[in-house]
Write a structure and sequence with these properties.
3 helices; five-stranded antiparallel beta sheet; globular
Length: 154
């Protein structure tokens, strides 16, 4: 027999009410509007895109305060695809990593090295207890953008 004791304190009536409200909204998470949010970085890695396998900087931000507390924002920035826009993609990724203020020198020396660099930056963010005020917005082409406005240390 399983011990479910630690879950017995959940208010079933309140949870059922929240489930009913969620059902009325088609079960979707609320859309997080553009704005500035205090966040911590919950996950950061270089991973392949689903469609082409191109290397992409992927960052999961956890919102720490306000109406959207404990919800997530996701930044996905392709870094190279082998075309004339690579310089812009890589520049954006590099500038974002530099803005995290970890003290790590951000230099592209190839995709495998960049994967290690991203992991090193993420470890530094965690080890230094860094949190951020992130401006979540949109550029002139309609793409989501994420800019560090302020850095907080524990």
């Amino acid at each position: 027999m399983t011990n479910w004791g630690k879950f017995e304190s959940i208010d079933a009536n309140e949870l059922n009410k929240e489930v009913a409200e969620l059902k009325e909204s088609n079960g979707d998470y609320p859309e997080i509007p553009h704005g500035t949010y205090e966040v911590k970085i919950a996950k950061m890695e270089l991973r392949p895109t689903k469609k082409t396998g191109a290397p992409m900087l992927s960052v999961q931000f956890k919102i720490l305060e306000g109406e959207f507390k404990n919800m997530n924002l996701w930044m996905n920035q392709v870094i190279v695809m082998g075309d004339h826009n690579d310089k812009f993609r890589l520049h954006n990724a590099n500038e974002f990593l530099r803005s995290l203020d970890t003290g790590i020198d951000i230099v592209f020396e190839g995709v495998r090295a960049y994967e290690n660099l991203v992991a090193e930056v993420f470890e530094a963010v965690k080890d230094q207890g860094l949190e951020y005020a992130i401006e979540y917005g949109q550029n002139k082409n309609g793409y989501d953008i994420y800019r560090v406005k302020e850095v907080f240390a524990d």
